[in-house]
Amino acid sequence: MSGDSELTVEGLAHDLNNVFETLSEAAEVLSSDPKWTKLASTIRRSVRRGERIVTSLNETISDSGDLTEILDNAVQHAEDVLTFTRGTAILYSRRVDPGVTLPGSQAAWERVFVNLFLNAAQANPQGAEVEIGASCSGGVVTLTVTDNGPGIPASILPAIFEPNVTTKKSRGRRGLGLHIVQSIVADHGGTVTARNHQPRGAVFTVTLPQSGVA
Ligand SMILES: Nc1ncnc2c1ncn2[C@@H]1O[C@H](COP(=O)(O)OP(=O)(O)OP(=O)(O)O)[C@@H](O)[C@H]1O
Ligand SMILES: [Mg+2]
């Protein structure tokens, strides 16, 4: 690929807009039949997410605001993906302290959580349970996503945030999800770690400076 200035986020957004418009039109057609209204709503939500992700690539870092809203959107997104692709859902629990805010764009943080939720579901197709933790102490925010799956294989644990590290063979899996997570967290001045816990499961921990705290 050349270093052409047209191959920028703006160019990508422009061409993806055609994709989004096509999907929106398809949702419009589907929504006229009561049988498909739920699917039409899912498609519309997915299009809005796609648009927000593209927009977020050009956003400057500011306060993304309410963590509850970020988590609600991420849970809804993961549910849409899982319900329509696998017919399974995740059982969530939250231990979120009030007043935790995250720096940066909401869409970026939703991507972080969605990738972690989908990994948990894929690790435990029989019935993933995910506990989301969020707390703030001494100007440091700690976010945790803990699951009840088999845990991360020891062979890949040291390299798990590298691109192209994957144990999945299904179509479209490229071992990029956790690399995206780490990149977004690093862009916001934070770090992310992965470990396994007893009796079983994986824990991902993000630490970063509380927004608004210098
Ligand atoms: N919660 C988890 N439990 C067990 N293993 C995990 C978990 N999350 C990630 N992994 C392991 O880490 C690998 C890399 O995860 P990552 O999200 O980067 O890529 P992927 O899920 O394989 O593919 P992609 O996210 O690009 O669709 C996974 O293939 C899996 O082996
Ligand atoms: Mg993944």
Structure write-up:
- It is a single chain.
- The model has no long low-confidence stretch (mean pLDDT 89).
- The protein has a 5-stranded mixed β-sheet with strand order 2-4-5-7-6. A two-stranded antiparallel ribbon has the order 1-3.
- With 214 residues, the protein is an alpha+beta fold.
- The protein has helices spanning 9-31, 37-56, 67-85, 106-123, 177-187, and strands spanning 63-66, 91-96, 101-103, 129-137, 140-147, 191-196, 202-209.
- The longest helix has 23 residues, at 9-31.
- α2 packs across α4 (106-123), α3 (67-85) crosses α4 (106-123) and α4 (106-123) runs antiparallel to α5 (177-187).
- β4 (129-137) and β5 (140-147) form a beta hairpin.
- The chain has a single domain (59-209), classed as 2-Layer Sandwich (Heat Shock Protein 90), CATH 3.30.565.
- The structure holds adenosine-5'-triphosphate (ATP) and magnesium ion.
Summarize this structure briefly:
The protein has helices at 9-31, 37-56, 67-85, 106-123, 177-187; strands at residues 63-66, 91-96, 101-103, 129-137, 140-147, 191-196, 202-209. It has 214 residues and is of the alpha+beta class.
Set out the fold topology.
Blueprint lengths: L8 H23 L5 H20 L6 E4 H19 L5 E6 L4 E3 L2 H18 L5 E9 L2 E8 L29 H11 L3 E6 L5 E8 L5
Parallel strand pairs: 2-4
Antiparallel strand pairs: 1-3, 4-5, 5-7, 6-7
Helix pairs in contact: 1-2, 2-4, 3-4, 4-5
The structure holds adenosine-5'-triphosphate and magnesium ion (MG).
